[in-house]
Amino acid sequence: MAKKTGGFLPISKEDMVSRGWYYCDFLIVTGDAYVDHPSFGTAVISRVLEDAGYRVAILSQPDFRSEADFAAMGQPRYAVLINSGNIDSMVAHYTASKKRRHDDSYSPGGVGGKRPDRAVTVYAKLARRAFPNTPIYLGGLEASLRRFAHYDYWADHIMPSILQDAGADGLMFGMGEKSVLEIAANLKAGKRGPDVCKQVRGTAYFTKDAQDISFPAVWCPSMEETVEDKIKYAESVKIQYAQQDHITGKAVVQKHGHRLLVQNPPSIPLTTEEMDWVYGLPYERTYHPSYEAVGGVSAIAEVQFSIIHNRGCFGGCNFCSLAFHQGRYISSRSHESVVAEGKRIAQHPDFKGYIHDVGGPTANFRFPACKKQETQGLCQNKRCLFPKACGNLRADHSDYLKLLRQLREIPGVKKVFVRSGLRYDYMMADDNDEFFLELVKYHISGQLKVAPEHMSDHALYYMGKPSFDVYRRFKERYERINAKLGKKQYLVPYLMSSHPGAELSDAVHLAEYLHSIGYMPQQVQDFYPTPGTLSTAMYYSGVDPRTMKPVYVAKTPEEKEMQRALLQWRRPDKRAIVIKALLQAGREDLIGYGKECLIRPRPNEHFAHLHTEKPSKRHGRGRNTQPSRRTDRTTERRAARTSNRSGGGRRDQKSNQKKKYTKHR
Fold first, then answer.
1. Alpha helices of 167-222 — where are they, by DSSP H?
2. What one-character-per-residue DSSP string does 217-248 give?
3. What is the pLDDT of residues 172-185, one digit of tens each?
4. Among residues 174, 218, 470, 171, which one has the least CA distance to residue 328?
5. Consecutive H or E run containing 508
6. DSSP string, 435-471
7. Degrees to nearest 5, angle at CA 214 with 211 and 220
8. How do residues 41-96 score in pLDDT, each as one tens digit?
């Protein structure tokens, strides 16, 4: 059994020797810098194994051109465990338009290029060369979402399970505390091959023998079928999604040539007591001191003084991978555990009195959506909040409110913010204003960011989001409560362009709405097709896996640019593409001098519908002299300015994930 010495886990052979170790039981390889904080999957899995008595060493961001860094650590006794870091390495490296990013907030000093593309696969091959006889198991978000044959946006074709490309022995998907301990116990007992994973929930593995399947199983179209037929790919995704419930889910089998890929049912979610144990382990809550000389690791900034209180999300947005990775069932920590962490944070020498967030995948979920989920599982063909809140939904914020009140009372705490995603539709299902009042009064600072994503109900249907009317009513309620409290705080909407199903007319509709309230987002998130989401299946297959009906998809760069530009119609650099989009959409009426128009013609521009119109003197020649309107437009404009000053706007997938523990394993 490993002797617990406290502090960071060893990151080199010298560190191990200083502890009196001449080997480790598990070598954890990660594409991130080593940050010992519970928002980082490497930290959680390493501490869980350490607490179970295993010797664990960390190899972070090894040289990916050679196996030398692996060999230098020495062969582990049981296995090499590999993850790409908190986010998919391809998302870390490329924008939605496939442009290379130049920095990396998960690397020391923010320097990009410290990990390879498809990091899990590259690391696994290097580990195999360094340790030919040592088992290799994959985990983290990159592996979890690529466990089946999947569409890869960057290669633009179907790729096989990451297990096949990586040549690993098995894979852990979802939140891995239970599965990693079972795998560790099986390896310690001398099991090898499929026997290590056969009866372990939350794992996937290859076998040639159907007798190696230990759970009742369903079969989805083979990898070869999904390559040949896009409809088969959509069918496979639908089958896979239907089995991601820990109560009703079965094993899913997918043929890859002569082998069978077996995904066992998901892990049983942690109980409150088990979550308290995981978050109570002795994390250092910061990056390894060896990075200090190069400026540290910036990804710690938003999470160092934040608290995760829950897991799972029953929101079920189609573009989000949570349902496929972490699941829709909610688990939560006890008040005592969360408050104890708050007190530890308050004692930190760098703490300035502000707890940055008390959240998780969705901040205001504290328990399963309904009692039925606890014993009968999740509804397969229904959503808790889409297209409207289910009649069985328990919309109750009282427990979360009580938790926030307790955190506010901790000595040394000046302010407790709620910055991770708030489901405004869930708040609207709760008629009691008590939580809403205290949220506005105590837990935001100047602006509240929520994610309606669009305002066209046609587009929202394909996103799996409720009607825009819910957001409209939420906005009115928010403004009414601010007025009641004598506050001037703003609402900043996150918006997405080019989602499957969203047509050019939907983008025009959204632009008209934004123009009517006088708000233009500084940043817009273009839809990013990443593995493991229903929306990505729509993007590739051209059908909605929920119904198997055709869906419109904007795929060409020009189509995407037009939808994105319409949401930023005031920007001079977008003018030409906005005009082209309006003409293509048959909306020339939005080019002109009326107050409802998005674009004002310049002297040298001629549009057929304007030939019979004569601009009035008040408009001048092409000047944008639209009269101001003292409505909520003023409020929205102030919100936009505030958002711009604070770096607001739509977060891209990279920065959105760095604040959330949900995206780490």
1. 177-188
2. EEE---HHHHHH-HHHHHHHHHHHHHT--TTT
3. 999 999 999 999 99
4. 174
5. helix 504-517
6. HHHHHHHHS-SSEEEEEEE-S-HHHHHHHT---HHHH
7. 80
8. 999 999 999 999 999 999 999 999 999 999 999 999 999 999 999 999 999 999 99
